[in-house]
Amino acid sequence: MTGPVVGEDGLARCPWAAGPGEMRDYHDHEWGRPIVGDAAWFERLSLEAFQSGLSWATILRKRPAFRAAFDAFDPERVAGYDETDVVRLMGDAGIVRNRAKVLAAITNARALVALREAQGADSLERLVREHAPPVAPAPHDTEQQQTTSPESVALSKALKKRGFTFVGPTTMFALMEATGVFDPHLVGCHRRG
Fold first, then answer.
1. In this structure, how many other beta carbons lie within 10 angstroms of the beta carbon of residue 190?
2. Residue 125: inside a domain, yes or no?
3. Which of 11, 153, 159, 166 could form a disulfide with 190 if both were Cys (CB 3.0 to 4.6 A apart)?
């Protein structure tokens, strides 16, 4: 078990962000902060699905290529993708070339467009935020950190019911952490609170 780690700059951080670089920048400036807009939510949902089974550092390094390949994660544009686009994406060495995950991104764009048509703008954000835990976790070390919760299980079911795929409870827990649905930082991390 590991608690917050103090970096060379004197700041305590979650252990995965202890050293300088891309992961630290992500930790300090993005992880656990709210996002706004359907494209931002669709991007995070998609990238969390692509990350499944891989390291977040890999996805973060490839994020600019993902953004270019998926039209800046514009849900309407991605919802209109066809087999030609799937072939294009599968040939793009800059992204994770996993056919099931590529198809999931397209399916999820279509599900998001349908959700928005039925419930209005920002409906994905509202749905995710409705599943926020009543009491945010407050882990002191990595041993106490969760990877799922009753809320992430319920969110997974709610999204699947609406046609989304690759939205399992662990992926949804990571999405809620990343988007600031609750504060994911360890107690003692300078970003906590």
1. 17
2. yes
3. 11
Q: Residue 140, annotated ligand binder?
A: no
pLDDT in tens, 78-112: 999 999 999 999 999 999 999 999 999 999 999 99
How many angstroms separate the CA atoms of 122 and 27, rounded?
25
**CATH of residue 156:** 1.10.340.30
Is the residue at 61 inside a domain?
A: yes
Residue 185 annotated in ligand binding: yes
Active site members:
26, 48, 56
Using an 8 Å Cβ cutoff, are 46 and 168 in contact? no
Q: Which DSSP letter does residue 186 get?
A: P
Please write the tens of the pLDDT for every residue from 105-159: 999 999 999 999 999 989 999 999 999 999 999 999 999 999 999 999 999 999 9
